[in-house]
Design brief:
The protein has 754 residues and is of the alpha+beta class. 24% of the residues lie in helices and 33% in strands.
Length: 754
């Protein structure tokens, strides 16, 4: 059983057509909100499981958008793939070297006139197993939006699956002739046959095909199921009552193979025929076994049955080589035992029992089995690396050909072989004396049993290298992200219900599947410049700190110092490139930076209100505690900054009105204070908010945010009120050295020109 927690059958019904029993089932998943695409994590994944004997699959795709004015015409791209999540590249970036990329099958759903679009996708005779759908919006604009300033339009996508399954599908036994009847062209014949392990070939024959009127029939035979993005169904048209056959090389091992026969004759005529399937067996030879590995009396370095010498040895005695040649002639392949070692989530290492060195001959391929059929292995990258031991190869022109395939191995490797099996196009590799290393990266390998076939090839024919054996070191492993996304990327583990998969989030302008595309990458000089701008721009708080200390606002100066310190080191740690320095945990630095920024605005506006000291300090402490709580709840919410600012402005305006009414004069009374301090400070503050909320993008962040630092710090220096009239400049420093105090009237100032 393959458990799929995200898929629950909602309904099921049974239909009967002409002695065939059909069951229709409906599977649904919850809708997801779509995102604009910048990396694979923005694509919304849907995971379904198609049951066996399904003859018709129908996807119901529903895309909708909101009704607000912010919602515009949009195009939703939907990708399909069998066995693994789709490998997509909407941005047109480069993939890592040695990676195999096959474009996914995709369709586009337009949301232009109507607010909802419903699309159907039909697939006849789909392959049973895991199917994946990924949906996303076009490329992201790169603009940094402050949460709360703008309302994004919601785009919703939902995928439902309908299947029509045949419950009594006839089973074709190998070597047994089975009579069948096609009732009408509208009702094709469906059957299935089980492919045993070690099947080298399969042959399907149709005999004695006649219509109900005893005339020669015309039928079409479809062998295999549809898989996306590539389908390798075999189709043949049979005319007349002569024997019609269809042969397959390397059919998928230990799987059911669907057969569909449909009549191409008259609409009301039935067709009778005989079907028979036969298999060609492949006799495997093993170089070792798990029993020898578990035996305490046998070392892994001892000679292995059926191989030339022990792993690591390069010399092959002539007598032993001749004995190996005679053994290889009786086998169609040589298997090497492989142990699957699970390391972590989507992380597997394959270990050869006889060591990493594998003997490769010319008469039959050497086969390694890589098990990836747990259902949770398709969300990473399969890496296969080959290294040829040049000293083991006596022929200079000989090469070792390799092929990585799923479901069944390639049993014959030669110069004209295109590394393909009956229903899968494999991935070729080769190593030789001129190029001793080769690597293959399979992105999101489909859920199946994978095989690595290796065989020695000689330019003058296989007879030239009968007694020659090459040693190839094989490294195979499954990793969430190849090379851990490199120095300019972060490997993120993504989840859709119970299914886990990985993707790379790139930084510093780098792109691509594994963050290896440097087309738009920032140079090291630009990265250093960005770090210097974002950190050193915080030094503009020094004038504000100096003004606050000069005017005896020590609490305010302390807050500005706190903000300057943590903003500097937060941005030094937040850099995407190599110019990074973190003095403590990133989350702590970010929280302290956000807290200091909001509290700085809070204490500045309260200081401008000129309320009584006891009231001011109570508001300082109470406001700081509330701000700390709100930032813990939602750190990037706009009201965490706007709320304290508006509340402090209300207090300031009320205090100014109170002072003006009490004095019967406008407050502050001096026009110079308005013209040279308040208006410039307010202007700088409004410009800073505009830059922060509407101008920042991923590309210009390092200088627009630096401008935000400068404008905010300068506005604070302008907005701080003058000192109390009875206090002297730098009066706080005199208290550090004075041993006695002179009592003075420190009542609340009501007459100073402010």
């Amino acid at each position: 059983l393959q458990p799929v927690l995200s898929m629950l059958p909602a309904t099921s019904c049974t239909l009967s057509f002409a002695d065939s029993l059909y069951v229709s089932e409906y599977f649904s998943q919850s809708a997801q909100k779509l995102s604009f695409y910048s990396w694979y994590g923005n694509a919304k994944l849907f995971h379904f499981h198609v049951p066996e004997d399904t003859i018709l699959l129908r996807w119901l795709l529903q895309a909708s958008r909101g009704k607000g004015p912010e919602c515009t015409d949009m195009e939703v791209t939907v990708h399909f793939r069998y066995g693994a999540p789709p490998v997509i590249n909407p941005l047109g970036t480069r993939f890592p070297a040695n990676a195999t990329v096959r474009p996914s099958y995709n369709i586009s759903i337009a949301l232009s006139g109507a607010a909802q679009n419903t699309t159907f996708v039909n697939i006849t005779t789909p392959a049973a197993g895991h199917w994946f759908i990924a949906a996303h919006l076009p490329e992201a604009a790169g603009r940094i939006e402050v949460k709360g300033f703008s309302i994004p339009c919601p785009y919703i996508f939902q995928a439902d699956m309908f299947v029509l399954r045949l419950t009594d599908m006839p089973v074709l036994e190998p070597g047994v002739t089975m009579p069948q009847t096609i009732v009408s062209p509208a009702k094709p014949l469906h059957a299935k046959v089980f492919v045993p392990k070690h099947a080298a070939g399969m042959r399907l024959e149709l005999r004695s095909c006649v219509t109900s009127e005893r005339k020669a029939c015309t039928v079409r035979v479809v062998l295999g199921s549809i898989t996306l993005p590539q389908s390798f169904q075999r189709i043949v048209t049979c005319v007349g009552n002569v024997t019609c056959s269809l042969a397959l090389d390397s059919p998928p091992w230990e799987k059911w193979l669907q057969i569909m026969v449909e009549s191409l004759g008259a609409a009301n005529g039935s067709v009778s025929l005989m079907m028979v399937a036969s298999f060609t067996a492949c006799r495997p030879g093993s170089s070792s076994s798990f029993l020898s590995f578990l035996s305490p009396n046998q070392s892994q370095t001892s000679p292995r049955p059926g191989s030339a010498v022990a792993a690591g040895s390069s010399a092959v005695p002539a007598g032993e080589a001749s004995r190996n040649v005679s053994k290889q002639r009786s086998f169609c392949l040589q298997t090497q035992p492989v142990v699957r070692e699970d390391l972590d989530v989507v992380s597997v290492r394959y270990r050869l029992l006889n060591g990493p060195s594998v003997p490769v001959g010319s008469l039959s391929p050497t086969l390694l089995l890589l098990n990836l059929n747990t259902g949770m292995d398709s969300g990473g990258s399969l890496v296969v690396s080959l290294l040829l031991n040049k000293t083991s190869l006596s022929l200079a022109n000989a090469t070792v050909a390799a092929c990585v395939s799923a479901a069944s191995p390639v049993l014959s490797l030669n110069a004209t072989q295109n590394c393909s099996t009956a229903f899968f196009q494999g991935y070729p590799l080769s190593v030789g004396t001129s190029s001793a290393e080769a690597m293959l990266i399979v992105l999101y390998p489909q859920t199946d049993v994978w095989f690595l076939s290796l065989q020695l090839l000689c330019p003058k024919g296989q007879g030239e290298c009968k007694a020659t054996e090459a040693k190839v070191t094989v490294f195979a492993y499954l990793t969430p992200c190849f090379n851990d996304c490199g120095p300019y990327g972060q490997c993120s583990l993504l989840r859709r219900h119970g299914y886990l998969y990985a993707g790379c989030s790139c930084k510093a302008g780098w792109g691509g599947w594994s963050c290896t595309d440097d087309t738009k990458a920032q140079s090291v000089g630009v990265q250093n410049l960005a770090t210097l701008l974002l950190t050193l721009s915080n030094l503009m708080f020094l004038p504000a700190i100096t003004v606050a200390v000069h005017r005896c606002y020590l609490v305010e100066a302390s807050v500005y110092t706190y903000t300057m310190f943590f903003s500097t080191f937060y941005h030094a740690c937040d850099q995407p490139g190599v110019a990074v320095m973190c003095i403590m945990d990133y989350d702590t630095l970010q929280y302290c930076d956000f807290l200091g920024s909001v509290v700085s605005i809070w204490v500045t506006i309260l200081c401008m209100s000129r309320v009584k000291k006891i009231q001011k300090y109570v508001l300082f402490i109470l406001g700081t505690l509330l701000i700390a709580m709100s930032l813990q709840l939602d750190r990037r919410g706009v009201w965490n900054m706007m709320g304290p600012c508006l509340f402090a402005l209300v207090i300031m305006i009320a205090a100014w009105v109170h002072h003006g009414v009490k004095r019967k004069h406008c407050y502050p009374p001096s026009w110079k204070r308005w013209v040279f301090y308040l208006l410039p400070g307010i202007t700088l503050a409004f410009i800073a908010i505009s830059v922060y909320a509407f101008m920042e993008t991923n590309e210009n962040y390092y200088y627009t945010h630096s401008i935000w630092h400068v404008l905010v710090a300068c506005s604070v220096a302008f907005l701080l009120p003058p000192r109390d009239k009875h206090k002297k400049p730098w009066a706080w420093s005199q208290k550090l050295t004075c041993r006695y105090q002179i009592c003075q009237n420190d009542r609340e100032e009501l007459y100073a020109v402010t």
